[in-house]
Design goal:
Blueprint: H1 3-33, H2 41-59, H3 68-104, H4 114-138, E1 142-148, E2 160-164, H5 179-188, E3 193-197, H6 211-218, E4 227-230, H7 240-249, E5 252-254, E6 258-262, E7 266-270, H8 288-292, E8 301-304, E9 320-323, H9 334-341, E10 347-349, E11 357-360, E12 377-383
Parallel strand pairs: 1-12, 2-3, 3-4, 4-5, 7-8, 8-9, 9-11
Antiparallel strand pairs: 2-12, 6-7, 10-11
Helix pairs in contact: 1-2, 1-3, 1-4, 2-3, 3-4
C-alpha cells in the first residue's frame, strides 16, 4: 500500500466507522431509553467510541506494530461487530424511511410515539440477531460444487480439477480450524490437479495461528499433478517472504506470472494479482501476451487469475480460467453489488463459443465478518 493510500484508507474507514457508529448508537440509545429511562449516556457514548476505534484498528492490524495477541483481539472484536454493524445500519435506515413515509402520510403522529420507537427498534434488533446467528451458522458449513465442462481441446478429456480460493489464513474464520477436514474432502475427490486461486493469506503471515501444522496438513493433499496457486490481493505485504516460504513447506507451487507445463499435456498459468495490498515480491503484473509468447500454442492452456475482473484480458487461445475473489458478495445485499460489478461473480460463464470457459468460486472461507448470508463456502470439482 502506497504512502498516500496509508493516509486515505484510514480516513475513509474513520468516516464510515465513525458516522455509522454514531447513527447506530443514536438509534439504539433512543430504543434503550424506552426500556431503561435512566441509562448513563456517558458510558454509552464511550462504548460506541471504543467500538468504532477497534473496528478501524482491526482492519488495519496487519499494518500496525502491535503484538500478535493484541492484533488478534482487535480483529476478533472488529469483524464480529462489523457483521452486526452492517445489518443494524441497513435495517435502521430502512426503518427510518418507513417512519418518514408514515409521518408524511399522517399514519404515524408527530412526534413519533414512544411505543412506535420501541417496537421499530425491537424489530431491528431481533432481525439483526437472527441474520447474524444464521450467518455464523452458514460460515461453518462447506458446500461441494461440481461442474462438467467440454473445452474445445479434447486432450483435457477425463481430467479432474479441484478449485479452492480465498482461504484467508490468519483471518477470523474456520479455514485453519477445519483444515484437516478440508484436505480430506479434497483427497476424497481424487483430483488430477488442485488449483488455489489466491487470497491464501489474509495479508499477514504472522496472524496464522499454527503455520507449521497448517503447512503439514496442506502437504497431505493428494493429486496426480500436485497443488498450484496464484497470489491474491491479500497475499502481499511486509510478510510476503514468509508467505512464499510457507507455500514451499506445504508443497504448493506458487505461479506469479509464470507457467508450468504439466505432463506435456497442458499449460497452467498463474497470474500476479492486479492490485495487491502491499508489496508482492517487487514484481509488476505482466501483460498476458508476454507470458503467452513463450508458451507452446499446441497445448491447451488453463489460467489461474484471482480477480474475475480480468477475464476480458483473455481470448480464444485460453481454454479455461479459474478465479475467485468475489466471495459472491459473502453477505446479502453485497451479492447484488458483486453481480453488478463483474461479468460473472460466481459459477460457470462463457461469453460465446470462441471464448474461454470461466469458473468463479465463492471461496472456501470468509473475509472480514465470519458470516455467510445468501452465499456458501465451497470446494469446486471440475471434470473435463
Amino acid at each position: 500500500m502506497s504512502g498516500l493510500a496509508m493516509i486515505i484508507f484510514p480516513l475513509i474507514l474513520l468516516a464510515i466507522a465513525g458516522g455509522g457508529n454514531l447513527y447506530i448508537g443514536l438509534k439504539l440509545y433512543q430504543w434503550l431509553v424506552t426500556i431503561f429511562p435512566n441509562i448513563d449516556s456517558g458510558i454509552y457514548i464511550g462504548v460506541f467510541t471504543i467500538l468504532a476505534v477497534i473496528m478501524i484498528l482491526g482492519f488495519m492490524s496487519s499494518f500496525l506494530p502491535f503484538p500478535v495477541w493484541l492484533k488478534r483481539s482487535f480483529s476478533w472484536i472488529s469483524v464480529h461487530w462489523m457483521g452486526i454493524f452492517v445489518y443494524l445500519l441497513l435495517l435502521y435506515f430502512v426503518m427510518d424511511i418507513i417512519l418518514l413515509a408514515g409521518g408524511l402520510l399522517r399514519i404515524i403522529p408527530d412526534p413519533v410515539p414512544q411505543s412506535v420507537i420501541f417496537y421499530s427498534g425491537l424489530n431491528v434488533v431481533l432481525i439483526t440477531t437472527g441474520l447474524v446467528s444464521y450467518g455464523l451458522y452458514k460460515a461453518n458449513r462447506l458446500r461441494y460444487v461440481f461442474y462438467d465442462l467440454q473445452p474445445a481441446n479434447t486432450s483435457l478429456n477425463g481430467m479432474k480439477l479441484v478449485l479452492i480460493s480465498d482461504s484467508h489464513l490468519g483471518a477470523v474464520n474456520n479455514f485453519e480450524r477445519d483444515l484437516e477436514k478440508i484436505v480430506q474432502a479434497i483427497n476424497d475427490m481424487k483430483p488430477d490437479l488442485v488449483c488455489w486461486t489466491g487470497d491464501i493469506f489474509n495479508g499477514d503471515y504472522f496472524a496464522v495461528r499454527n503455520p507449521d501444522r497448517a503447512a503439514m496438513l496442506l502437504g497431505g493433499i493428494e493429486s496426480a499433478y500436485g497443488v498450484y496457486a496464484c497470489p491474491g490481493n491479500h497475499d502481499a505485504g511486509a510478510s510476503y517472504t514468509q508467505m512464499s516460504e510457507f507455500l514451499k513447506r506445504a508443497d504448493v507451487t506458487l505461479l506469479s506470472d509464470e507457467y508450468a507445463i504439466i505432463d506435456d499435456r497442458f499449460v497452467l498459468i498463474g497470474r500476479s494479482d492486479s492490485s495487491p495490498i502491499g508489496d508482492a515480491g517487487g514484481s509488476k503484473r505482466k501483460d498476458i501476451s508476454d507470458i503467452l509468447s513463450s508458451v507452446d500454442a499446441d497445448l491447451p492452456i488453463i489460467v489461474m487469475d484471482h480477480n474475475p475482473g480480468s477475464i476480458r484480458d483473455y481470448g480464444s487461445e485460453i481454454n479455461l480460467i479459474l478465479t475467485g475473489h468475489t466471495h459472491k458478495g459473502q453477505m446479502f445485499p453485497f451479492s447484488l453489488i458483486t453481480r453488478a460489478i463483474f461479468d460473472v461473480d460466481h459459477g460457470h460463464y462463457q461469453k460465446d463459443k470462441n471464448s474461454p470457459h470461466v469458473i468463479v468460486t465463492s471461496g472456501v472461507s470468509t473475509w472480514g465478518p465470519p458470516l455467510r448470508i445468501g452465499t456458501n463456502n465451497e470446494i469446486v470439482c471440475i471434470t473435463l
